[in-house]
Sequence to fold (71 residues):
Amino acid sequence: MQPFTPVSLGDVSWRVARLCNAGNCVKIATNGVEFFIGDSKAPGGAVLAYSRDEWTAFVDGVKRGDFDHLI
Fold:
């Protein structure tokens, strides 16, 4: 995973959670191959990119409760 600027993302559609609190949220996008995570408060800020396998492993971990101890 390498951070890079959104300029290299092309034309992706960013999404935030329905319950996003005043724009202080993580934003997520995909180009169909990679998944991107950024900070909604910093539109031109750094973005992290993950492969489909990495993203799937993360989502599966969330569903299993692997990160519940962090909240």
